[in-house]
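ESCALATION

Customer reports they have been waiting on this structure for their group meeting. Please prioritize. Original submission:
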Amino acid sequence: MPLRACVVGYPPTLTPLRRFSLVPHAPHVLEQISRVLAATPCQHCGRPPYHPVSESETTPDAAALDAVDAAEERLWRQLDEGAKVRGAAPPEPSPDQLAVARKALADAKRAERALQEQMELAEKALADPRGWLRFNQRMTVAGQLAEDRNAVPPIRAQVAAAEKRVRELEQRRDRGRVYLARYRRVLEVSDAAREELDRLVDELVHGYASLPVPPPWFTLGLGYPPKPEEYEIWLRRARAVIAYRRRYGVNHPLEPLGRVVPEQGTAQHKHWKAAQKPPRS
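Update from on-call: job pushed to the front of the queue and completed.
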């Protein structure tokens, strides 16, 4: 049974006796030593310096890492159900689209108000009897008022069109929200499944990298270990590849994504594309 040290260098590292065939009952001797050390407090921290490593802490082999159990299969199904719900949702406008439409409406209304105020001032000036004393100025004001009145229908049409655009976008947004609210529970379960699968995939990346001899699809197919400057790109692809293999049952020993190209337009093809090796810059 392997031993783990609490403080490096104290007590001295013990060589597991079971590696040698000269000791007839090495496992029993090792267990006795382990029990003694487990009860001996460390001189630095006061805790036992060694504890036996449980079976759950041992490094699994590649076959154990490759296995997909029923619980994980359920998580992938839940993730797919959430993706289908979102894919069937009425398309919602982007926040930018709605912001642009609302700004256009505000600008049109501001121009309408400015035109209305300008017309009111002109009408007030023409109603003043003293205006006849400045005949040329009065005629200029009257001409401008006529032009402003002609501009009223187009600007009102512009306001109406902007209002219609905002109303349509808001209705599309509301339809999407109502649809998603109807399937809220499915989406919550799917989101929780995604978080659990993300955690599992990260553990698997670490597990494969920790194997004494990682499988060929991991070392050769993914280029492990990556160069330091390529680590972030490599890690993103490793996550996508491992997720793809488990989600779609790929078990090819050399090709990370298998040799079958999924049908275009499917969700699997989208995930297949996302897990491709990025082109070199």
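Sent to customer with the following note: The longest strand covers residues 3-5.
Escalation resolved.
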